[in-house]
């Protein structure tokens, strides 16, 4: 395996961790992840934890990581919902009224950020075909485990009424301890097909999440490293945002997969686990 160490920044100022498959797998922490995060904190490196999952609030992730021995704070957590909020603040400040398709964590984050939020599950499905729902600036779509036809119809009617269609992420599926289930991207694809509107996608592999992290941290991509397990999401998003990437083989990618990667999916380095990541970064911290 060619690790291509020279492709990593000479001086690393920011490290962005993916969560599932990198820091934990289901309810089980990945060995060495807590030690790596703590070591980076001790060295004064800016650390962020970035996940496409929109169902849990940032405060919820702080609590979850604390239970795994990782001390962090809300400002270091970036979910696809918080990245969507940051994107709207910077690039669409006129968006104030939001129709949400998602879970309580997404609703709570949007409301705490000052948006007027109504969830699609709280609306009645349109009574007539082609009916419009006016008054929403955006429809924000995340993972919704209670998604039904009525919620899709309400979101479609809001888009017909002029709301922009925003996807917190477009993951086709998401991992559970027992296997995979449909992800937020399944609902996004349904709405895009029904409305004929291409969504604005914020989460990985779109670069918006990492771009928002770089902007808020005041660090450029050339001094940043993304640690991820998914070449199709983490590595591609890192490359599009101008960041370097280390693919760790503790999640979805195995060694055979890593050796076959090309183009945007090819990381700058490959590590077996967080312990090897530390070895790679030891001489590169500014």
Structural class: alpha/beta
CATH fold-level label of the largest domain:
Rossmann fold
Please tell me the CATH architecture of the largest domain by its name. 3-Layer(aba) Sandwich
For the termini, the CA-CA separation is: 27 Å
Total helical elements: 10
| Rounded radius of gyration (Å) | 19 Å
| Coarse morphology | elongated
Which CATH class of the largest domain applies here? Alpha Beta
State the share of residues found in helices, binned by percent.
25-40%
For the secondary structure, the number of strands is 15
Overall mean pLDDT stands at: 92
Q: Tell me the name of the CATH homologous superfamily of the largest domain.
A: HAD superfamily/HAD-like
């Amino acid at each position: 395996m060619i690790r291509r160490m020279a492709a990593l920044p000479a001086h690393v100022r920011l490290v962005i961790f993916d969560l599932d498959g990198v820091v934990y797998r289901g309810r089980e922490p990945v060995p060495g992840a807590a030690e790596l995060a703590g070591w980076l904190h001790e060295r004064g490196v800016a650390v962020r934890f970035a996940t496409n999952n929109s169902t849990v609030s940032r405060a919820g992730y702080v609590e979850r990581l604390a239970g795994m021995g990782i001390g962090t704070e809300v400002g270091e957590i970036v979910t696809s919902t918080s990245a969507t909020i940051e994107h709207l603040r910077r690039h669409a400040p006129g968006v104030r009224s939001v129709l949400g398709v998602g879970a309580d964590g997404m609703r709570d984050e949007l409301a705490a950020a000052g948006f007027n939020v109504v969830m699609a599950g709280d609306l009645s499905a349109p009574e007539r075909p082609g009916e419009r729902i006016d008054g929403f600036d955006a429809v924000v779509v995340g993972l919704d485990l209670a998604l039904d036809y009525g919620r899709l119809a309400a979101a479609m009617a809001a888009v017909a009424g002029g709301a922009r269609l925003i996807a917190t992420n477009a993951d086709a599926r998401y991992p559970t301890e027992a296997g995979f289930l449909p992800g937020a991207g399944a609902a996004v694809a349904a709405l895009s097909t029904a409305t004929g509107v291409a969504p604005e996608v914020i989460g990985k592999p779109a670069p918006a999440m990492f771009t928002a992290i770089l902007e808020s941290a005041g660090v450029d991509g050339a001094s940043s490293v993304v640690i991820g397990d998914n070449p199709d999401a983490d590595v591609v998003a890192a490359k599009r945002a101008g960041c370097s990437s280390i693919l760790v083989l503790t999640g979805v990618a195995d060694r055979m997969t890593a050796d076959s990667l090309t183009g945007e999916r090819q990381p700058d380095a490959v590590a077996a686990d967080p312990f090897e990541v530390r070895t790679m970064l030891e001489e590169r911290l500014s």
